[in-house]
Amino acid sequence: MTETSDRSADSEAHEAPRSRLHRLMRYIPMIAPVLLWAVPCWILLHTGQHWPLPVTLIGTALFALGLVGMPLAMVRGHGRRQQDQAAIVGDTLLGSVWVLFTWSVLLVPLRLALTVAGVGDGQGRARFVTWAVLGVTAVLLAWGYAEARRVPRVRRLDVQLPRLGAGLDGTRVVLITDTHYGPLDRARWSARVCETVNTLEADLVCHTGDIADGTAERRRAQAAPLGTVQATRARVYVTGNHEYYSEAQGWVDLMDELGWEPLRNRHLLLERDGDTLVVAGVDDVTAESSGLAGHGAHLAGALHGADPDDPVLLLAHQPKFIDRAAAHGIDLQLSGHTHGGQIWPFHHLVRLDQPALAGLSRHGTRTLLYTSRGTGFWGPPFRVFAPSEITLLVLRSPLRSTSS
User: Fold this and answer.
1) Do 260 and 235 contact (CB within 8 A), yes or no?
2) How far apart are CA 209 and CA 264, in angstroms?
3) Per-residue model confidence (pLDDT) at position 20
4) What pLDDT was estimated at residue 7?
5) Cβ contact 342:360 at 8 Å
6) How many C-beta atoms surround the C-beta of residue 71 within 10 A?
7) Residue 17: what pLDDT?
8) Membrane-spanning residues where (predicted)?
9) Residue 117 has what pLDDT?
10) Which H or E run includes 370?
11) Could you tell me which CATH class the domain 153-403 is placed in?
12) Nearest alpha-carbon partner for 334 in 174, 161, 164
């Protein structure tokens, strides 16, 4: 009885902090907007600037309007009503205030430095920093919007896989991911992305999920150009977490209709000159809690029947799946999800959840992970210090390299 009681007490001791953390997490959606709007309001308007009263009142009213309007627009846009115009307003306000908040905080030391240097008087220094923050924010938002809406640059990378046979040396794999077709109509952008992909003469084209925000029925027109993508061997797709917010099976069915092969815990073989590459895919890890019958990430099922001596290319939406991949001796995992942080310095928060932010990384003795910064953008139509990409990975065999 004593041992059982001790275990029960230990369990309760562990659960108590976890319960408090969960309760705290519930308040974040309420606390975050207040901080995002109140901090820059205070720094820019109420810390010694001594603006004329109408300026102070109008500025404060605008911040208050943003504080109230942004959450309301987000709820109407992304809640049950799914109103695209409201989503555009809410997302744009979110991205804008994030940049404004960041630079309001970052430029506070500038004001201290000017004070130490004895430059100007207190009011002059305060106003100078306010205008500096507003100027930097305006430039970054304009640039970030252009970066988000442009056709991504092609990033080319040679990746050597020690187990890849010489017959498959030079295999061209194009990765697109996180297209996030959404409230802003990007049908023309989608067509131009697909045109760019078709110039790369890919053997294999992969989409590692988060096709859209919204159901396949609502975003069909934006996704339709994916049907024009060309590959000499295969076009393959795996689900992302956003599919599970938007009737994932509908997206699986649409991609199948467009000629893509959904790799839902299964694999196909890429063969050339007597050598074989196993191309496998798994559902996103969020599928396991989605409640959708038949959806879940099952790596063992994806590899069932494959020759263990053949190299494996795995598609998995989130980089965090790399732990399972490395345990199974996967050679290369392709992922997206992180967007490279999308709006700096959000990448610091992404790193709390994911083992990699962007680029090629090694995990364990054999496994490589390539994390794309994404082809589109989620929510706020901005990319700041996190450019989008279309990735061309050229697979290299050490055997071919030795012979040449």
Assistant:
1) yes
2) 12
3) 56
4) 40
5) no
6) 18
7) 47
8) 27-45, 51-74, 86-108, 128-146
9) 85
10) strand 367-371
11) alpha beta
12) 174
Q: Where are the domains positioned within the chain?
A: 2-147, 153-403
Distance CA 76, CA 44 (A): 30
Ranges of the chain whose pLDDT falls below 50: 1-18, 21, 402-404
| Closest alpha carbon to 185 in 76, 77, 258, 88 | 88
pTM, entire model: 0.90
Q: Check if the beta carbon of residue 213 is closer than 8 Å to that of residue 378.
A: yes
Token duo for residue 98: 């994030």
Pairing relationship of beta strands 234-237 and 275-281 according to DSSP bridges: unpaired
Give the span between the Cα atoms of 368 and 385, in whole angstroms: 25
Q: Cα–Cα distance between 83 and 105 in angstroms, integer? A: 33
pLDDT for position 25: 54
Q: In whole angstroms, give the CA distance from residue 214 to residue 82.
A: 8
177 contacts: CB under 8 Å, gap ≥ 6: 206, 207, 208, 209, 210, 240, 317, 335, 336, 337, 372, 374, 375
- Residue whose entry in the numeric block shows the structure tokens 């050598």: 275
- CB–CB of 195/230 below 8 Å? no
Tokens of 169: 């040396």
1: number of CA atoms within 13 Å, CB side?
0
pLDDT of 28 reads: 66
Local structure of 44: helix, strand or coil: helix
* 313: amino acid identity, one letter: L
* The pLDDT of residue 290: 87
Q: Are strands 359-363 and 204-207 parallel, antiparallel or unpaired?
A: unpaired
